[in-house]
Each structure stands twice: as C-alpha cells, then as structure tokens.
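Re: the pair you flagged

First of the two:
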Amino acid sequence: MGPADLLTATGVCRSYGERVALRAVRLVVRRGERVALMGPNGSGKSTLLRIAAGRDRPDAGTVTFDGAPMSENDPRVRARVAVVADTPSWYPDLTVRQHLELVAVAHGVEREGIDTALRALRLHAHGGSVPGALSSGQLQSLLLAAALLRPRDLLVLDEPEQRLDPGARRRLAGMVRAEGARGTAVLYATHHRELAGAADRVVLMEDGAVVADGPADEVLATVER
C-alpha cells in the first residue's frame, strides 16, 4: 500500500449461497481519486461497493481504509466515509431541511452547510417538504445532499444517477469532479458514460471479476454505446 492509497481491496471474494458475486477482485482507490465501476447488472458492482464501504464482509481477501481493516463499526470510517446506497431510506414525517439538520448535528457541521447543500441539489424550494411530496428525482437529490453535507474523505455512490433527469445527471458529473478537486476520493457505480467520464479511472466488471481498469477515456473507448 502506497502513501496515496486510501482504500485497498485485495483478493476479495463474496458468494451468496451458490451465487458467486465477486471473484478475487483487486481494487485501489487513491486519495482524491475518482473511480467509476461499470458493467452489466449482476456483474458485482453493488456488492463491491458495500464491501468497500464496510457494510458487507468478504468471504476471502482483505479490505483496508487508510491502512486499517475496513469496518462500518469503526468510528474513523463513520466519520470519514459517506455513502449513498442502492436502497434509499428517509423519515416520512421529517422535512427535507430537518433531514439535513439531523446529519449536520450528527457530524458537527455548521448549519450554513445545509443551505449550500440545498442549493447545490436544487432543493432550496423544497426545504419544507416531506418525502411523500417529492418526486423520485428529488428524493435521490435529498440522499445526495445528505452525503455531501457531512465530512468525508471517501464518497461511495451506487448508481447515483438513478431517477435523475439529464440536467441533474450533468450537475452530478460536475459534483463528482468537484469532490476530487477538493481531495475527496469518489468510488461509484454507474451505467451512464457521461457520469463515468467524470472519473479518473474506470473499472469494468463482468461476472464478478475486474476485466479492465485504466484511464476513463481508454476504458470507455472499449465499451459499446
């Protein structure tokens, strides 16, 4: 592990019953690096993200975060890793602003950051709305806003473009680039070439294995449109 490496997965295997989800996967994410996972449904992207975030454990292999074993229960991980998973969740009776206030209090974030997150995700006009009054795209934006509000060295996103319209996807690509510029490592799964193009590297997965890993433009050139 080099001094710039933040997240390292080595020989990671994971099965669910007879279904093999990951086959000896190796992945390195450096500090401030943006890495996109691509591949068909069932290729292992979501499983790898859950393990990378400490939310699942491999059957074999090792995963380290900043040199220590990755675990969701590690206070360092909770304080430094932000996740937008593929299973959205929210409190039905809390407004958008109240959701973000909870995140701010939990992570010691100044309240001014709430307004910044609301504006960045185009939710400033919906701060008083409860989830049931939001569109599916706005709900996805709420999850992204919560992740961007908290302190983070690593941001893990599982198909964050879900339910977003084309304009919102373009803004999301800009946000991914901005995260890297501020020094946050971003590891995300996506099916969209435009969003993958915001990465420094693209890791292509198939049948639980990494079949390509390289600069985004080079790997995307091999992927059918």
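Second of the two:
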Amino acid sequence: MRKLLTLRWLTAAAMIVVLAIICFVLGEWQLSRLGERRERNDVTRSNLAATPAPVLDIVGPDKVVGEAHDWRTATATGTYDVSRQLVIRYRNVSDRRGFEIVTPLRLADGSVLLVDRGFLPRGNNSSEVPPIPAAPTGEVTVTGRLRRSERGGDTKGVVPVDGSARLINAPAIAEATGQPLIDGYLLADSQQPAADPAFRRLPPPEIDSGPHFFYALQWFLFALLALGGLVYFTRRDVRDGSPESREPEAVAAGPADRGLRPDRGHPDSGAGLD
C-alpha cells in the first residue's frame, strides 16, 4: 500500500483522472453540438417546406437574413445590375470545380439583394472563368432559398477584388461597392424570364445528424478506458505488494547448499584410508 502513496504514483493517477474528465467534457460538448444541429435541421426542413414569400416580408425592416431565415423559400422582383456582378471563385459542386455568379438585384424599394444565379464548371485543364451567360434585362422575378452571408476570417476572401471574391458576404460587398445590400443572399432555383441553361443549380442542404454522436461515444470510451486502466494497475500493484503474494525465499530456494555435489560423498569420506 505504501507504494501507492508515492509522489510519482499519485501524480500519474491525477493525470489519468484529469484526462478522463477532459474526455468526458469533450463527449458532452459533442452531444451539445448534436442538439444544436438537430435544431438547425428542424428549422431548415420547415423553411424549405414553407410557401414562397417576398423577401422583404421575410427579413423585415432590419433586412438581415438570420438563422431563422436560412434556407427559407423566398421570391424577389427587380432588375439586375450587371455592372456590379461578382464571380465567386473556388467552388465545388459534385466534385466539379468552378464558379458561382452573383448579380445584384435592385428591388422596388431601392434595396439590393445579391442573387446567386448558379454554378458554372470550369473547363478541363483550365482555371479561367467560362463565358458568363447574360442576365435578363428589364424586370425579373427570382424564386430561391435565402442564405446567410458567408463568414471568414480572411478579409481577402470577403472583400471583392477585380470583380471576384471567395465568399458571399453582403456587408463586405456593400462596403466595397456602396450598395444598400440586404445582409444575406438568394440562391436562385427558378427565374422569370427563365435563366440560361448553362447555369447548374446548386444542391439542397444535407439534413443529417453528422458525426457528433459517434464522436461523443469515442470520447466517453476514452474516459472509461483511462479510468479502467487506473483501476486495473492499482489493483495489480496492491496484489503484487501484499505479503501473501510473496513466498519465503528460503522455501523457494530449497535446502541450503553446502557446496556438496550429488556425485560426491562427504568431503571426508575415504580420507586416510589405504
């Protein structure tokens, strides 16, 4: 028992307990993320199934696409401003690399909504932007899904440069272009007049629980393994250190060896005989 009270053993035991606690906390964190994802999935399902409504009725006076509006089906009527059109680079759809074309749509009240008109795959062995289909002139009505502005820590990704950007971030684009943009954008599904068939529609969201549940199980398993290992090695040290687990050395070694060999008699046998 004295061995278990050494500073080295106590330090190792404390580290194992701390490790198990950390693993348990990480498991709880993954479960909380699972709950958040399920809540978002419920909102997404409801918004996708909602009857299309005018975008200004959905976002309200704040004109911000929030979490409650993400993937909400909406309509917008106005005229495209092709002079401020943006190419969004480094996009992938079904393992195809390409570009998304975002064109501002000026609404009747003077506000402007960014419309993602669709995806254009890049050519084979080419990183150049393919020819961009012309936007319809005059009034158009777009039906699609509202999306929140994309966020990123790299300002070079959100601020448009030479007519292109990496992220669709309405506040950054508004500041760079001076347009009164709604904070968010519309992912076009259909349009009147019809959109050019060269555009590929972007896929709907993936609604699943993700890997959070299995990650949580892994962290809980690591915590159990750490505590189980501590219990196992503690029991082994106690067992190995108990008096009953050691046999007397004299018994184990057998009779004391006096230097006699089995093939020899007494050292004095036969001494002095003729």
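The longest helix spans residues 7-49.

-B.
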